[in-house]
Amino acid sequence: MKNYNELYNTSLFLLTDFYELTMIQGYFYYNVNTEVVFDLTFRKTPFGSGFIVFAGLQPLIDIILNFKVNEEDIEYLYSLKVFKKEFLEYLRNFKFTGSIYSVEEGEIVFPKEPVLRVHAPIVQAQILESIILNIINFQSLIATKTARIVECAKGRTILEFGLRRAQGIDGAISATRAAFIGGADATSNVLSAKIFGIPARGTMAHSWVMSFDSEYEAFEKFAKLYPENVILLVDTYNTKGGIKNAIKIFKELKKKGIKNFGVRIDSGDLETLSKYARKELNSAGFKEAKIVVSNELDENIIEQLINRNAPIDIFGVGTKLITGHPDASLGGVYKIVAKKIGKRILPLIKISDTPQKISLPHIKNVVRFFKENKFLFDVVCLENEKLNKYKFFYDIETNFKVKFVDNDETKQLLKPIVKNGKLVYTFPNLYQIREKTKHNLSLLPDEYKRLINPHLYKVCITERLKLMRENFIKKCQKYLIK
Predict the structure, then answer these.
(1) What is the C-alpha separation between 273 and 55, in angstroms, rounded?
(2) SS (H, E, C) 75-138
(3) What b/e string do you get for 178-198 counting C-beta neighbours within 10 Å, with b at 16 or more?
(4) Could you give the maximum distance between any two Cα atoms of the chain, in Å?
(5) Which domains does the chain have, with CATH numbers?
(6) Phi and psi angles of residue 392, each rounded to the nearest 5 degrees, phi first
(7) pTM of the prediction?
(8) Which of 127, 118, 130 is nearest to 35 (CA)?
(9) Below-50 pLDDT ranges, the chain
């Protein structure tokens, strides 16, 4: 596929919040360009979920490594009468020369643990904040929503039907990519299918049926034109009557040796109507006929339909998938955690009256522990810290002790993606990422995948990191107004 700068036919350098530019101009003028480290973390899971599917890394890295400031950008910034010529000349040659570590796309992650880390001069690291949060927050939100839907579908096909309800053009394109990572089988969005090389699927609209003199004629014409993929929308006038007309068409197709057909129901009581359709289709000798349903579906409705044995083969999910309903966003944050002073690395921490907003200082990684090929817990530790010396870890929020237990294996989650401005990681294709998501979810115990009140996955910190955070908080007490 084209890189994102080419896709949108413009420089994406200015896809940033205004204060990022005013800050980096300040850094430039005061010669503050020390090496720093920023972490990306999620504060909580969306949808009351027990997990998050990490997505959006490849397009993010693609944009960062192709960042450039063109002449139109320079002219626009100068017209604002805020940015000085010397600073704008400096931006002309902007290039990211830092390093990025990240979990891989399709990885399962949890609140409070770092999922992406940037090492760079502060001018470079700062300007990345908005684009990192924009891409990773949204794609991870949609990938997580889709994964929940796929989990509830229990192996049935999921079609992403969200284009017409998406939040604008990129909301549709990026969401299609993320939905595929989350486990969707195909999309109705033809442009996204072309860009990402994923299957495009669709049936017909009610307008097709209403454009002919009869429902039967509309079905007949459609089957003649697309005999190898005949999914007939049966609820334009009367669903039961539509099913009978569909059966007439299927009889003609079967005489020709064609068996790839089915009905789609887009309204009404999907459980009752799907059971009626299955009964009628089976009675007519069409056990192979597929039943497709759509109409404001989400994971809760799908789970209920499956639990009530609705004989549905394919779910077309649109609005509530593509928009991440009911959560409009995923609250990822990007915070500075260390800076270089001479040859020394100085840990940094953000203190807040809201405990959940207090950051974890210093350069860190995440180690995942496994037991019997299942996730056990994660430990946030200092980079290169040895964990086998510990008998206890500490809950990342409560500081309660968590006993070190026997495990079968561990995995370090943050991997080098970019080193000194050069890509050092080979990105898998979307099909491989989709399989990675599926595999990782299979390693997550079922209690963390419940729709309602899932078990809370344990994320811990080491004693060294715990003491470092506590000491920072104590030192910051002197800044309190008494």
Answers:
(1) 36
(2) HHHHHCCCCCHHHHHHHHCCCCCCEEEECCCCCEECCCCEEEEEEEEHHHHHHCHHHHHHHHHH
(3) bbbbbbbbbbbbeebbeebeb
(4) 88
(5) 4-142+328-479 (3.20.140.10), 202-291 (3.20.20.70)
(6) -135, 150
(7) 0.95
(8) 118
(9) 482
